[in-house]
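Input chain follows. Return structure tokens only.
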Amino acid sequence: MENNSYRRLTRSLTERKIAGVCGGIANYLNIDPTVVRIIFLLALLCGTFGFWAYLIVWIAAPEDNQFER
């Protein structure tokens, strides 16, 4: 029997503006996606960390529907 009690970080299909990264992170953390978008925007304005973090999560995190059975 599988234990599916753990959560996965996935890119959101419903809360997406570009790639669903902020929506996926917000869903994982149970917070509003707007808060995550503002944090990424501030990180981008303070340097390139926001861009690289967004790009890495975009590449590494699968979309929501890839784990549906």
